[in-house]
Amino acid sequence: MISYKILFENLNPTYMQPGNQFLFVYGSLLSGFKSSAYEYIFKHFRFVGDANTIGTIYDLGDYPVATDTNTGQVIKGELYEILNAHEWSFVLAQLDDYEGLYPEQEETAQYKRSLIEVALENGQKTQAWAYWYIGDVTGKPVIHLNSMIDYWKVKNK
């Protein structure tokens, strides 16, 4: 179990800077999936708009993943802003746990969180936190759809 007290005490001060309280989602946290994880997002974040960033989507067989590898592919997603800035550290820690950033001793982290540049549909750019797959994608096919939702629609036909 994660000790959130220790996590909070060791937080990098950049988490609290204005403008860094944005979250870019492109997978299971998207509104279109209506997952329990999205319900958490909806509870703590305000939808800013559709957005995109640069990365690469791979097909692992059972599910797709995205990496921050710049192959020139645009990944469509959604940009959110925290509703209550005072909850930022707690909410981010909960999302880190959901994404498995701090696995149990015998497990390996499959994702990382990093601050990235995203562009809204109107061309405005900002920085936001995003979660990227860090597992092995060697030999895995690149998905040439820009949206995880589009991928699932095609895969489940």
Tell me, briefly, the overall form.
Answer: globular
Q: Please state the average pLDDT score.
A: 82
Radius of gyration: 15 Å
* Number of strand segments: 7
Q: Report the total helices.
A: 4
Order of helices and strands: HEHEEEEHEEH
Cα distance spanning the termini: 39 Å
- Helix and strand content put the structural class at alpha+beta
Classify the helix fraction into a percent range: 10-25%
Provide the spatial order of strands within the biggest beta sheet.
Answer: 1-5-2-6-7
Characterize the largest beta sheet: strand count, sense, and whether it forms a barrel. 5 strands, antiparallel
**Low-pLDDT residue intervals, each spanning 5 or more residues:** 1-19
Strand content: 25-35%
Gist of the model:
With 157 residues, the protein is an alpha+beta fold. It is built from four helices and seven strands.
Describe this structure in words.
The protein has 157 residues and is of the alpha+beta class. 22% of the residues lie in helices and 32% in strands. The protein is built from four helices and seven strands; from the N terminus they run H-E-H-E-E-E-E-H-E-E-H. The chain has a five-stranded antiparallel beta sheet. A two-stranded antiparallel sheet has the order 3-4. A hairpin with a 4-residue loop joins strand 6 and strand 7. The longest helix is centred in the middle third of the chain and has 12 residues. The N terminus is likely disordered.
